[in-house]
Each structure stands twice: as C-alpha cells, then as structure tokens.
Amino acid sequence: MRTIRLTVAYDGTAYAGWQIQPNAATVQAELEKAIEKITGKRSRATASGRTDAGVHALGQVVAFRTGSAMAPEVLCRALGAELPDDIAVLDAREVPECFHPIRDAARKRYRYVIHDCPVRDVFSRRYAWHYGRPLDAEAMQRAASALLGKHDFTSFAASGSERTSNVRTIFVLSVARGQGGQAAVIAVEIEADGFLYNMARAIVGTLVEVGRGAQEEAWPAQVLSARDRAVAGPTAPPQGLFLVKVDYPPSCESPTSSRD
C-alpha cells in the first residue's frame, strides 16, 4: 500500500463542510468518490483539518492509502477529471507511509476577507464578510498584536471538538487593507501551529469589535486573559475564511516523488 498526499483547493459554498455527513454534500465525500472511481477501491481521505460549511481552501492537504500503482501525476490529472468544478487537486505526491496530515502539520495559515463598504459587492458575497460600514484596520492590527505568541486561546474556541489543550502559538496575525480598487477589502492573515474549533473566526469577530469602535484596542488582550468564550466577540461568518496552506517538516515528505 502507498500513501498519496494531495493538495486540494475548493469553493466551500455548496458543501456542508469537509467531513462526510448523512444526507449532505461534503468535500470529503466528493473526493473519496473520485478516488474510488479511479482506483477501483474505497479509500479514506484524511484532511489536515475539517473546514466548516461555507469555508474555502486554497491549499488543503489530504492523504489516502491505495494499492494502485498509478503515478502521482496521473492520479492528479485523473482526479481533476472526475471532481466537480468547485474542487481541484493542485498536486499529488507519494509520501512515507507514516505521513499523517493532522499529526504531522507544523503550521497552518488562514486568511479571512472582509468587505467593509456600505454597498455590497454581489460578486464577492460567497468569499467575504460584507460588513456595511468602514472599519479601522490599523486599530485592528494594533489590537491583534496581543494575540501573537503562545497562549491559552480558550476565549476564542467554540465548543464541539475534542482537544487535550487550548494552548496554541500564533506566529503571524496581520490586518491589512487593500489598495486602489481593493480599498474596501481587509485581509486578516493568521498563521499558527494549530487552531481550535472556530478559533480563526472568533479572533476576526473580536478584532472587528475594535475596528468598528465598540471596544478599545486593549480589549483583545483582556479577552485572551479571561479564558471565557462568552467575553469575546462574535464568530465571523464562514464565507470569508480560506485555508491558505499547511506546512510540514521535510522529514514527512519524499521529495523524489513530488509532482512539478
């Protein structure tokens, strides 16, 4: 048996999230169906994390085991031909048998997109949170600095998933407004060694409270110290969230089998 690692992009609008659910369309179900059609065998596709309904991915990492001798680049093309138009396999490679997309992940990066214009953009409604009033992105950036580093992020974790610890390390947390024609777009980038359930969206919702002037810039630091989800801001809606990439140590991959 071989372990194949895929890099997958998808528009999450039409799906009830990554994980297979009864009577609902999911990304995992579509991918496993395509793998079975190509290889002739059912395979469990394990992702680096379970994105929620409406959440998108630019670089989700997925692994599955197969007895097929098909070359990774051939698998990549074949999967692309079988998957619906809103799911794409960007890369396929053979990796060591011990590779695990969740356990081996060293860092993940998410991007959250906000459109803060009174007039909604009908073309971005599936890919951004339309916030109908201008936000102070600079104040949000200053407030975000308190969340950098290693902390207990209980205040930013929704219930609903098992975890042994709420301690995570955020390496990057930036809030930046676009320029020119993108001046009404704010992008929040968060890179960490792991994320709690809805952590990224809770952080964004909390920073928006600062950006709209409802809370002081020092408030996110107080929320962090409280270790109580009830004191933080709301959970930002799902459609603005993108899983950008997942990084792994070089020892987890086999460079000789990568696809260019």
Report on the architecture of this protein:
The structure is a single chain. With 260 residues, the chain is α+β, with helices and mostly antiparallel strands. α1 (27-39) packs across α2. The chain has five helices and ten strands; from the N terminus they run βαββαβββαβββααβ. Strands 1, 2, 3, 4, 5, 6, 7, 8, 9 and 10 form a ten-stranded mixed β-sheet that branches. The chain folds into two domains: 2-103, Alpha-Beta Plaits (2-Layer Sandwich); 107-244, 2-Layer Sandwich (Alpha-Beta Plaits), CATH 3.30.70. A hairpin with a 7-residue loop joins β8 (167-177) and β9 (185-192).
Helical element count?
A: 5
CATH topological fold name of the largest domain: Alpha-Beta Plaits
Give the overall form. Answer: globular
Q: Give the structural class.
A: alpha+beta
Strand content: 25-35%
DSSP summary, beta strand count: 10
Q: Kindly state the mean pLDDT as a whole number?
A: 94
Report the order of strands and helices.
EHEEHEEEHEEEHHE
